[in-house]
Write a structure and sequence with these properties.
Elements: H1 6-29, H2 38-60, H3 69-95, H4 101-137
């Protein structure tokens, strides 16, 4: 219907963060994502919490911060990464004996490699978009007199 509200802008971004962070932590906890990925997941978690804090500070000042384009791209890459890890998990748990081995092994290797590569890309985009967001809206953290 084309309706946009301040509440919707805030909750859309918050729900994206809850979904992606919950999935990254869950996949890491159950061992789908390897241990080396703890640091990238913590970087993603830190950025998301920092930007959510910035949005809350802005909301307290009556300002609604809409999502930046780089932030939307970051979310797409994060969700692609999660989908690839879920695909890898599905292949390992459900498809191992359902496909010919000469097709299964290269496909599993490709999906696993793509999942790890998109995790690295998602981490880089997450950090970059966080820096962009903080640079643009850092003044919201400052006192009114310093503006």
């Amino acid at each position: 219907m084309g309706k946009v509200s301040d509440f919707g802008k805030f909750m859309d971004a918050l729900c994206d963060k809850i979904l992606t962070l919950g999935m990254f932590v869950s996949l890491l906890t159950i061992g789908v994502i390897d241990r080396w990925a703890l640091f990238p997941v913590l970087l993603i978690l830190s950025r998301e919490l920092l930007i959510t804090g910035l949005r809350l500070v802005a909301a307290c000042k009556g300002i609604t911060l809409a999502a930046e384009k780089v932030g939307k791209l970051k979310t797409v890459i994060q969700l692609t990464c999660i989908s690839l890890f879920l695909g890898e998990m599905t292949m390992l748990d459900d498809l191992a004996d359902k496909m010919p081995i000469n097709f299964y092994e290269p496909l599993l290797e490709a999906v696993s490699g793509a999942a790890n590569a998109t995790l690295i890309l998602a981490t880089l985009l997450t950090v970059f978009s966080g820096v962009v967001y903080l640079a643009k809206y850092w003044n919201l953290f400052m006192d009114e007199e310093e503006k």
